[in-house]
Amino acid sequence: METMGRLCTIAVLVGGCNFALPGAEPAAGGDGSVPPADDASVDTSPGVDMAPPPPGATTTDHVASADTWLHSQLPDTNFSGDRVVIPDGNPVAIALMQFDLTPLAGTQVAQVELHIFTDFDPGAEVQVFPLTEAWSETQATFNQRANGLAWTTPGAAPPSRGTTAIATFTPAPEFTQFVVAVDPATVAAWIATPSANFGFAITSVNSDGPKLVSREGAAGTRPFLRITHTP
Prior knowledge:
This protein is mainly beta. It has a single domain (39-230), classed as Jelly Rolls (Sandwich). Helix content is 4%, strand content 31%. The protein has one helix at residues 184-192, and strands at 18-19, 40-44, 58-63, 66-71, 84-85, 88-89, 92-98, 108-117, 126-130, 144-146, 149-150, 167-169, 176-181, 200-203, 212-213, 224-230. A six-stranded mixed sheet has the order 1-2-13-8-16-3, covered by helices on one side. β10 (144-146) and β11 (149-150) form a beta hairpin.
């Protein structure tokens, strides 16, 4: 994949406990990619409600079913095979993610968390916005959401995505799992109307955007939604 041309200086270190996920696999060594999950830390971003689930609730995990990222300087290139996705403000880059929530049909959403890992290159604050247009993981580029279909605005900018953030977090330091509260009403609407579930875009206005592990990353480090729901 394209090298962004610099490693970010970590300005803020967020402490965390040691964290391991069952079944984590080592990434290929020596290339700066994600290490085994048992070397990672975990960060709970401010605002995540860690209260016990309501009576009768069930919590299930849903790994990303599609992801890629868009690059303004390579506007016709698709990056769906990359082991990271990159949001950045300069040059502009946008990460896209989608989750299959059809198994939750008919349930009521109580809480949603995005679990996402940084790679060797963390960064400044990012925001998460719901996408409003369908896109193809293997065809989406900065200019097109699928072959022959342009984004209404290049780079999945509004109105191709919403204007109100459904989550915000600062993905630093490196090799850390972040647990991020996501607006449950947005996810509930996706479950109620699957045809409206286009996933979300992760964006940054900063020029030191992070590398976030994609669904092509090592087992145990792939992004997922943890959803607490009731029948």
